Amino acid sequence: MLLGGALVARAELNWQTDAAKAQTQAKAEKKLVMLDFTGSDWCGWCIRLNKEVFSKPEFAEYAKKNLVLVEVDFPRRKELSEEQKKANAALAAKYSIRGYPTLVVLDSAGKKVGTLGYMAGGPTAFIAELEKLKK
After folding, report:
1. CA angle (22, 107, 65) in 5-degree steps
2. How far is CA 89 from CA 15, 61, 92, 105, in A?
3. pTM of this structure
4. Which of 7, 27, 38, 39 is deepest in the core (most CB within 10 A)?
């Protein structure tokens, strides 16, 4: 039963890949943008973050109300379009990304308000950190 819940939560999250569109949406809806710089199919900490936080119903609920989610992926096995690879590389350069997972949080105007990474404690701890950035 738990597995089904996790799958539903993951499906409910709308991870975008176009940061500019996400920023426009965030401005209109007065939400934060969370850029998830990840190696989705090889980075152990990224996979743990996904399993322990992003796949949980509590996070899905919070994200729906407060966040516009953007996946900036650097996979090794999954193929991305050249256009997507270039866009992701440009974002990584813009925010000086040095490792994965790195989560860059922007306010609705596009200003960087914080950076997060993997943390223990599941969705509760993660949401608490996001709440601090909203202030």
Report:
1. 70
2. 18, 30, 5, 17
3. 0.91
4. 38
CA pair distance 80, 40, nearest whole angstrom:
12
- How far is residue 52's CA from residue 95's CA, in Å, rounded to a whole number? 25
Cβ-based neighbours of 43, under 8 Å, separated by 6 or more: 100, 101
DSSP class of residue 82 equals H
The count of other CB atoms within 10 Å of the CB of residue 92 is 18
Contact indicator for 45, 118 with CB cutoff of 8 Å: yes
Distance (Å, whole) CA 44 – CA 107: 28
Q: Give 91-117 pLDDT, tens digit per residue.
A: 999 999 999 999 999 999 999 999 999
**Residue 75 — left, alpha, or beta (φ > 0 → left; ψ -120 to 50 → alpha)?**
beta
- pLDDT, residue 4, reads 44
Output the average pLDDT for the chain.
Answer: 92
